[in-house]
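Lab meeting, item 3. Inverse folding demo.
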């Protein structure tokens, strides 16, 4: 593998504490203290728990997005992860600490198949091929009644089990605060991993492929291999997010987890927040989703999701680098 080094990173990693990094640290600190700030208001905690989960979905999507590829098929990974963990826990009685990683590997296996089929496609052809790929697992789960219960879905999924750490007993099942912190920890781990990927040889290779694929291949970067590996990573963590979602809501059906919603949402967050930034997609999720739930959903119950389209159009027209990308350009 070729060593790719840059003197000054475009993301500003060598510039110390810039204003955008200070804002980021303050935001993470507020998220850490949120249960105390809202006095354990269950509704607010639920909304931000789902916002953090959507943020992980956007971060996972952006691992592939770093290469310039736009996937519309991540609902296939999300849904397969949700069903894999749900069925393993329901039918085999396995612990969620085992089924959730297995769900990630299941989604990665599906991502490998998708990659072999779609990886040589580019641009809109790749996006449309991934979109069509969603139908394969959706049709299987919808019609394999004996295993997946078909369109009726799976009801009464087990919640996150309790965890004993010495004298500490953490009840994720009944405590909204504990569930919030569990998803928050997953979010921090994935955010750190995405930051590492962006600064690694893999991330720099993906950026080179995005900027000029032919030139990158000329210096020894195997574009298809790097893009396939990024898809496997993206699929794995999307599957983990799908499994976490299944055990948080405790009910899934094919139309829900394989719906276009979970393919479009991470793309919207990534474009609005900044596709080629680390924190941008997560930031968009943590702003737009609570805004939708707290303000637009009560005002317009049947059409509140127009907010996503409106924000996407605004970002494309006036902030093509996304919210966080625009902030970075001004502060760096």
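The presenter then showed the designed sequence:
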């Amino acid at each position: 593998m070729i060593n790719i080094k840059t003197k000054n990173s475009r993301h500003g990693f060598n510039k110390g504490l810039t204003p955008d990094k200070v804002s980021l640290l303050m935001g993470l600190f507020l998220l850490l203290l949120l249960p105390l700030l809202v006095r354990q208001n269950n509704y607010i905690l639920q909304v931000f728990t789902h916002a953090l989960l959507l943020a992980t979905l956007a971060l996972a999507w952006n691992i592939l997005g770093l290469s310039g590829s736009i996937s519309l098929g991540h609902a296939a990974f999300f849904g397969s992860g949700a069903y894999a963990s749900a069925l393993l826990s329901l039918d085999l009685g396995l612990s969620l600490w085992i089924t959730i990683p297995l769900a990630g590997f299941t989604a990665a296996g599906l991502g490998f198949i998708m990659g072999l089929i779609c990886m040589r496609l580019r641009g809109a052809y790749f996006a449309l091929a991934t979109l069509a790929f969603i139908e394969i697992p959706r049709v299987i789960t919808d019609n394999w009644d004996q295993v997946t219960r078909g369109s009726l879905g799976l009801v009464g999924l087990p919640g996150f089990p309790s965890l004993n750490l010495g004298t500490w007993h953490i009840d994720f099942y009944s405590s909204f605060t504990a569930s919030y912190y569990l998803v928050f920890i997953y979010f921090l781990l994935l955010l750190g991993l995405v930051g590492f990927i962006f600064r690694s040889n893999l991330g720099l290779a993906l950026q080179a492929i995005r900027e000029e694929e032919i030139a990158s291949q000329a210096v020894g970067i195997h574009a298809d291999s790097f893009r396939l590996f990024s898809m496997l990573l993206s699929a794995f963590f999307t599957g983990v997010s799908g499994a976490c979602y299944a055990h948080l809501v405790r009910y899934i059906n094919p139309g829900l987890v394989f719906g276009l919603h979970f393919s479009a949402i991470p793309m919207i967050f990534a474009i609005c927040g900044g596709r080629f930034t680390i924190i941008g997609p997560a930031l968009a999720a943590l702003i737009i989703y609570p805004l939708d739930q707290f303000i637009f959903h009560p005002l317009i119950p049947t059409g509140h999701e127009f907010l996503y389209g409106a924000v996407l159009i605004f970002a494309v027209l006036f902030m093509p680098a996304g919210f966080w990308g625009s902030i970075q350009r001004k502060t760096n």
